[in-house]
C-alpha cells in the first residue's frame, strides 16, 4: 500500500463540467494557500479530522463551521467538487480546512502516527458490479492505513447505502482487534438520518430519494 502506483483507482473521474472563471480563480489563488501537506504536522499538538471524498464539500464546511477550533483536512481528486468547496470557504470565510487534491492514500502515508481524531468517509463510490469490487476504497489494507493515523480514542465514520459494501466494511472492522464498531450488527447501523451531522450529502439525498436504507458505521480505534 505504500507505493501509490500500485493502488487500484477508486474514483470514477477527476473533471466534470467546465469551471466558471471565478472557480478557476479560486483554484489558482486560494487552493495553494490551503493545500494540505505534511508541514501541517510539524505542530506536534495538531489533532485533526479528515473527510475523504468530500464531493461538493457541504458536510466538510458544516463540520468546520461548527468546530472552528479544529483543523479539518479534506481529500478529493474531483476538481469540480474542490472548486465548490473553495467557493463555500471563500463565501463563508472558513479558514480551518486544508485540502489535499488527489488520492487520499497518497496523503495518509505522509501523516505521522496517531494524529487524527476522526476520519469521515461518506457514501464512497460503491462499485456495485462484482468485477469492480476491487476498486472499492475500503479494503482491509486501507483500514490499516487509517488505523495508524487515528489517535487513541479516534474513530472512523463510514456511510453507504450499498448493503453489500456496508456489510463488507462492517466485517473487515470486526475481523481483527484493530477496531470496535459502536453497534453490534449492521442492521443497527440503519438510521433515518445521519447520526453525526445535520447535513444530508448529495449522495445520501440520492439514496433517500430512491428509498434505500442508509448505513452509518462508526468504529473506534482499538490500541493493543
Ligand atoms: C459517491 S461520491 C460521494 C461524495 C460525498 N461524500 C457525498 O456523500 O455526496 C465519492 C467521492 O469520493 C471521491 N473519492 C474516490 N476515491 C477517492 C480517493 N482515493 N481519495 C479521495 N477521494 C476519493 C470521489 O472523487 C467522489 O467525489
Topology:
Elements: H1 21-34, E1 48-52, H2 58-66, E2 72-76, H3 79-92, E3 97-101, H4 104-108, E4 116-122, H5 140-149, E5 150-160, H6 163-174, E6 179-181, H7 202-209, E7 215-221
Parallel strand pairs: 1-2, 1-4, 2-3, 4-5
Antiparallel strand pairs: 5-7, 6-7
Helix pairs in contact: 1-3
The structure holds S-adenosylmethionine.
S-adenosylmethionine (SAM) is lined by residues 10-11, 52-55, 75-78, 81, 103-105, 122-125, 137, 201-204.
Task: Characterise the protein shown here.
It is a single chain. Helix content is 32%, strand content 19%. Helix 1 (21-34) crosses helix 3. The protein has seven helices and seven strands. It is globular. The longest helix is centred in the N-terminal third of the chain and has 14 residues, at 21-34. A seven-stranded mixed sheet has the order 3-2-1-4-5-7-6, sandwiched between helices. Strand 4 (116-122), helix 5 (140-149) and strand 5 (150-160) form a beta-alpha-beta unit. The protein has helices spanning 21-34, 58-66, 79-92, 104-108, 140-149, 163-174, 202-209; strands at 48-52, 72-76, 97-101, 116-122, 150-160, 179-181, 215-221. The protein has 224 residues and is α/β, with parallel strands linked by helices. The model has no long low-confidence stretch (mean pLDDT 96). It has one domain: 3-Layer(aba) Sandwich (Rossmann fold). The chain binds S-adenosylmethionine. S-adenosylmethionine binds at residues 10-11, 52-55, 75-78, 81, 103-105, 122-125, 137, 201-204.
Amino acid at each position: 500500500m505504500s507505493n501509490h502506483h500500485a493502488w487500484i483507482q477508486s474514483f470514477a473521474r477527476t473533471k466534470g463540467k467546465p469551471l466558471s472563471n471565478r472557480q478557476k480563480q479560486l483554484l489558482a489563488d486560494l487552493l495553494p494557500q490551503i493545500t494540505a501537506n505534511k508541514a501541517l504536522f510539524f505542530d506536534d499538538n495538531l489533532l485533526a479530522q479528515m473527510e475523504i471524498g468530500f464531493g461538493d464539500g457541504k458536510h466538510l464546511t458544516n463540520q468546520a463551521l461548527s468546530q472552528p477550533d479544529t483543523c479539518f483536512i479534506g481529500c478529493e481528486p474531483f476538481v469540480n467538487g474542490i472548486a465548490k468547496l473553495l467557493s463555500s470557504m471563500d463565501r463563508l470565510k472558513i479558514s480551518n480546512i486544508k485540502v489535499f487534491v488527489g488520492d487520499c492514500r497518497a496523503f495518509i502515508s505522509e501523516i505521522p502516527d496517531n494524529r487524527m481524531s476522526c476520519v469521515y468517509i461518506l457514501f464512497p463510490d460503491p462499485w456495485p458490479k462484482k468485477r469492480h469490487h476491487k476498486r472499492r476504497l475500503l479494503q482491509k489494507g486501507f483500514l490499516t492505513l487509517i488505523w495508524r493515523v487515528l489517535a487513541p480514542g479516534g474513530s472512523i465514520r463510514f456511510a453507504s447505502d450499498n448493503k453489500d459494501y456496508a456489510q463488507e466494511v462492517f466485517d473487515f472492522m470486526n475481523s481483527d482487534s484493530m477496531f470496535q464498531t459502536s453497534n453490534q450488527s449492521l442492521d443497527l447501523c440503519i438510521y433515518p438520518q445521519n447520526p453525526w451531522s445535520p447535513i444530508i450529502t448529495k449522495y445520501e439525498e440520492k439514496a433517500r430519494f430512491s428509498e434505500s436504507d442508509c448505513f452509518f458505521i462508526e468504529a473506534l480505534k482499538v490500541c493493543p
